[in-house]
Design a protein that fits this description.
Elements: H1 2-14, H2 21-78, E1 79-86, E2 92-98, E3 104-110, E4 113-119, E5 124-128, E6 135-143, E7 148-157, E8 160-169, E9 174-177
Parallel strand pairs: 1-9
Antiparallel strand pairs: 1-2, 2-3, 3-4, 4-5, 6-7, 7-8
Amino acid sequence: MKQKVAKSFSTSCWYGKEAGFLIGELQLTVAVIALVTALLYGDFYQIVQGWHKMFIDMQLRDAGRYMCSILEKDLCYEGRLITLSEDYRGNSKLICQTGHAGKVYTYTWENKGLYKTTKTTNTSGKNPLFIPDCQVVEWQVARAGEHLVRLKFVLQKQGRRQSVEQMLYCFNGSVVYE
């Protein structure tokens, strides 16, 4: 007789004899799973969003370093005369005359991008100096000394911004205003 009591107690405790007990337990389990999923998704989404912002910031820094390295090579090492002026829109323009067969580099900021125009005695070409998905939203050039050029530009991608500022020392030339 003791065995029958124990067996009937375990049966009623886990499975219940009332109608709808199994459905209630199932609903409670689904509600707990939904709650845990919502909590984990919120944390997971924050982590993924943080990694995405960090990845965009790294891309902007890389784009800024790339642009500065090209400008440094052209101005610091190849430039004989660096002329600072403004274009017809009032934006800063940088003209670099080199000692290589009359080659002239002109840097202009237009259409949210920095462009390098290369002119030689026979040919001319215009190339973007920026990475296409990173926009150049500001561009400033100033003379900081006889051989110093101060560059400042701001890159933007998907709402994130990175400001780049660099002083360039022109070893082989001088800096003048037009």
